[in-house]
Design goal:
Length: 198
Protein backbone atom coordinates (compact mmCIF):
# COMPACT_ATOMS: atom_id res chain seq x y z
CA UNK A 1 0.00 0.00 0.00
CA UNK A 2 1.45 3.34 -1.03
CA UNK A 3 1.72 5.95 1.66
CA UNK A 4 -0.21 9.19 1.21
CA UNK A 5 3.06 10.99 0.71
CA UNK A 6 4.01 8.66 -2.17
CA UNK A 7 0.57 8.99 -3.75
CA UNK A 8 0.82 12.78 -3.65
CA UNK A 9 4.39 12.78 -4.96
CA UNK A 10 3.30 10.54 -7.85
CA UNK A 11 0.62 13.11 -8.81
CA UNK A 12 3.32 15.79 -9.04
CA UNK A 13 5.49 13.53 -11.21
CA UNK A 14 2.53 12.68 -13.45
CA UNK A 15 1.68 16.36 -14.05
CA UNK A 16 5.24 16.98 -15.25
CA UNK A 17 5.46 13.78 -17.31
CA UNK A 18 2.04 14.32 -18.91
CA UNK A 19 3.02 17.89 -19.78
CA UNK A 20 -0.19 19.37 -18.38
CA UNK A 21 -0.82 22.93 -19.68
CA UNK A 22 2.60 23.29 -21.39
CA UNK A 23 2.01 27.02 -22.08
CA UNK A 24 1.55 27.71 -18.37
CA UNK A 25 4.43 25.41 -17.41
CA UNK A 26 6.78 27.25 -19.73
CA UNK A 27 6.03 30.61 -18.12
CA UNK A 28 5.93 29.39 -14.51
CA UNK A 29 8.89 29.07 -12.17
CA UNK A 30 7.33 26.40 -9.99
CA UNK A 31 4.66 23.74 -10.02
CA UNK A 32 2.62 24.60 -6.91
CA UNK A 33 1.11 21.32 -5.70
CA UNK A 34 -0.12 22.30 -2.27
CA UNK A 35 1.11 22.49 1.27
CA UNK A 36 0.08 21.39 4.72
CA UNK A 37 -1.04 18.33 6.61
CA UNK A 38 -1.62 15.32 4.34
CA UNK A 39 -3.93 13.85 7.02
CA UNK A 40 -5.95 17.08 7.23
CA UNK A 41 -9.67 17.13 8.02
CA UNK A 42 -9.98 20.33 5.98
CA UNK A 43 -8.64 20.89 2.45
CA UNK A 44 -8.83 24.44 1.11
CA UNK A 45 -8.87 24.84 -2.66
CA UNK A 46 -8.16 28.12 -4.43
CA UNK A 47 -8.00 28.75 -8.16
CA UNK A 48 -4.36 29.17 -9.23
CA UNK A 49 -1.01 30.37 -7.86
CA UNK A 50 -0.08 34.05 -8.08
CA UNK A 51 3.34 35.69 -8.33
CA UNK A 52 4.49 34.97 -4.74
CA UNK A 53 3.24 31.40 -4.94
CA UNK A 54 5.04 30.84 -8.23
CA UNK A 55 8.29 32.12 -6.73
CA UNK A 56 8.13 30.05 -3.53
CA UNK A 57 6.34 26.97 -4.86
CA UNK A 58 3.84 27.27 -1.98
CA UNK A 59 0.12 28.17 -2.12
CA UNK A 60 -1.36 31.29 -0.51
CA UNK A 61 1.82 33.06 0.63
CA UNK A 62 1.05 36.59 -0.63
CA UNK A 63 -1.41 39.15 0.75
CA UNK A 64 -4.40 36.81 0.27
CA UNK A 65 -2.42 34.11 2.08
CA UNK A 66 -1.77 36.39 5.04
CA UNK A 67 -5.48 37.09 5.31
CA UNK A 68 -6.16 33.35 5.02
CA UNK A 69 -3.78 32.75 7.96
CA UNK A 70 -5.61 35.42 9.95
CA UNK A 71 -9.00 33.79 9.27
CA UNK A 72 -7.71 30.33 10.20
CA UNK A 73 -6.38 31.72 13.45
CA UNK A 74 -9.73 33.41 14.23
CA UNK A 75 -11.36 29.99 13.76
CA UNK A 76 -8.71 28.43 16.06
CA UNK A 77 -7.36 26.34 13.18
CA UNK A 78 -3.62 26.04 12.63
CA UNK A 79 -2.40 26.37 9.07
CA UNK A 80 -0.23 23.31 9.72
CA UNK A 81 -3.42 21.28 10.40
CA UNK A 82 -5.04 21.93 7.02
CA UNK A 83 -3.98 21.20 3.45
CA UNK A 84 -4.09 24.07 0.93
CA UNK A 85 -3.98 23.71 -2.82
CA UNK A 86 -5.41 25.17 -6.06
CA UNK A 87 -7.24 23.64 -9.01
CA UNK A 88 -4.62 24.96 -11.46
CA UNK A 89 -1.08 24.24 -10.27
CA UNK A 90 0.86 26.72 -12.46
CA UNK A 91 0.55 30.49 -12.32
CA UNK A 92 -1.44 31.95 -15.23
CA UNK A 93 0.46 34.87 -16.84
CA UNK A 94 -0.18 38.25 -15.17
CA UNK A 95 -2.39 36.54 -12.58
CA UNK A 96 -5.28 36.29 -15.04
CA UNK A 97 -8.16 33.96 -14.16
CA UNK A 98 -7.50 30.34 -15.07
CA UNK A 99 -9.15 29.37 -18.36
CA UNK A 100 -11.83 26.64 -18.44
CA UNK A 101 -9.51 24.30 -20.37
CA UNK A 102 -6.72 24.85 -17.82
CA UNK A 103 -9.03 23.97 -14.95
CA UNK A 104 -10.26 20.93 -16.87
CA UNK A 105 -6.69 19.76 -17.56
CA UNK A 106 -5.72 19.93 -13.88
CA UNK A 107 -9.02 18.67 -12.48
CA UNK A 108 -8.14 14.90 -12.50
CA UNK A 109 -4.98 15.61 -10.51
CA UNK A 110 -6.92 17.57 -7.90
CA UNK A 111 -9.35 14.67 -7.60
CA UNK A 112 -6.41 12.32 -7.00
CA UNK A 113 -5.08 14.65 -4.29
CA UNK A 114 -8.46 14.60 -2.54
CA UNK A 115 -8.66 10.79 -2.87
CA UNK A 116 -5.26 10.51 -1.21
CA UNK A 117 -5.91 12.98 1.64
CA UNK A 118 -9.56 12.03 2.32
CA UNK A 119 -10.61 15.22 4.14
CA UNK A 120 -13.85 15.63 6.11
CA UNK A 121 -14.55 19.02 4.52
CA UNK A 122 -13.49 20.67 1.30
CA UNK A 123 -13.48 24.46 1.48
CA UNK A 124 -13.58 26.07 -1.95
CA UNK A 125 -12.08 29.56 -2.05
CA UNK A 126 -13.73 31.57 -4.80
CA UNK A 127 -16.09 30.63 -7.59
CA UNK A 128 -13.49 28.93 -9.83
CA UNK A 129 -13.05 26.02 -7.45
CA UNK A 130 -16.67 26.08 -6.25
CA UNK A 131 -18.22 25.63 -9.69
CA UNK A 132 -16.45 22.31 -10.24
CA UNK A 133 -18.02 20.80 -7.14
CA UNK A 134 -21.29 22.72 -7.10
CA UNK A 135 -22.11 23.86 -10.64
CA UNK A 136 -24.84 26.36 -11.47
CA UNK A 137 -24.76 28.12 -8.10
CA UNK A 138 -23.97 31.68 -7.15
CA UNK A 139 -21.35 32.01 -4.43
CA UNK A 140 -23.17 35.08 -3.06
CA UNK A 141 -26.18 32.86 -2.27
CA UNK A 142 -24.48 29.80 -0.77
CA UNK A 143 -21.21 30.98 0.81
CA UNK A 144 -20.58 29.50 4.24
CA UNK A 145 -23.29 26.85 3.83
CA UNK A 146 -22.12 23.22 3.90
CA UNK A 147 -23.35 21.25 0.88
CA UNK A 148 -23.31 17.48 0.67
CA UNK A 149 -22.41 16.13 -2.73
CA UNK A 150 -21.67 12.70 -4.16
CA UNK A 151 -18.35 12.79 -5.87
CA UNK A 152 -17.44 9.62 -7.73
CA UNK A 153 -17.94 6.94 -5.06
CA UNK A 154 -17.42 9.35 -2.21
CA UNK A 155 -19.82 11.57 -0.33
CA UNK A 156 -18.24 14.94 0.34
CA UNK A 157 -19.11 18.03 2.33
CA UNK A 158 -18.22 21.19 0.44
CA UNK A 159 -18.18 24.60 2.11
CA UNK A 160 -18.00 27.33 -0.55
CA UNK A 161 -16.33 30.55 0.62
CA UNK A 162 -15.31 33.74 -1.08
CA UNK A 163 -11.68 33.92 -2.14
CA UNK A 164 -9.55 35.73 0.49
CA UNK A 165 -8.37 38.11 -2.26
CA UNK A 166 -11.96 39.41 -2.49
CA UNK A 167 -11.52 40.99 0.95
CA UNK A 168 -8.38 42.78 -0.22
CA UNK A 169 -10.41 44.60 -2.87
CA UNK A 170 -13.60 44.95 -0.87
CA UNK A 171 -13.26 45.65 2.85
CA UNK A 172 -16.92 44.71 3.43
CA UNK A 173 -16.11 41.11 2.48
CA UNK A 174 -13.66 40.79 5.33
CA UNK A 175 -16.27 40.32 8.06
CA UNK A 176 -18.26 37.89 5.88
CA UNK A 177 -15.22 35.73 5.23
CA UNK A 178 -14.16 35.68 8.88
CA UNK A 179 -17.72 34.79 9.93
CA UNK A 180 -17.80 31.91 7.42
CA UNK A 181 -14.41 30.62 8.54
CA UNK A 182 -15.40 30.59 12.19
CA UNK A 183 -18.17 28.08 11.32
CA UNK A 184 -15.72 25.43 10.06
CA UNK A 185 -14.81 23.76 13.39
CA UNK A 186 -18.53 23.58 14.24
CA UNK A 187 -19.28 21.87 10.91
CA UNK A 188 -16.55 19.30 11.58
CA UNK A 189 -17.96 18.60 15.06
CA UNK A 190 -21.42 18.02 13.58
CA UNK A 191 -19.99 15.60 10.99
CA UNK A 192 -18.07 13.67 13.64
CA UNK A 193 -21.19 13.37 15.81
CA UNK A 194 -23.15 12.08 12.82
CA UNK A 195 -20.50 9.40 12.17
CA UNK A 196 -20.56 8.31 15.79
CA UNK A 197 -24.33 8.04 15.72
CA UNK A 198 -24.59 6.07 12.47
Amino acid sequence: MNSKYELLEQIRVDIIENNVCPDLAQEAKNLVMGDGNIDAEIVLIGEAPGKNEDETGLPFVGAAGRFLDEMLSQANIKRSDVFITNIVKYRPPNNRDPLPEEKKAFWPYLVRQLDAIKPQIIVTLGRHSMEYFIPDQKISLIHGQPKRITFGDTKLVIVPLYHPAAALYNGGMRATLIEDFIKLPKIIDILKNEKENI
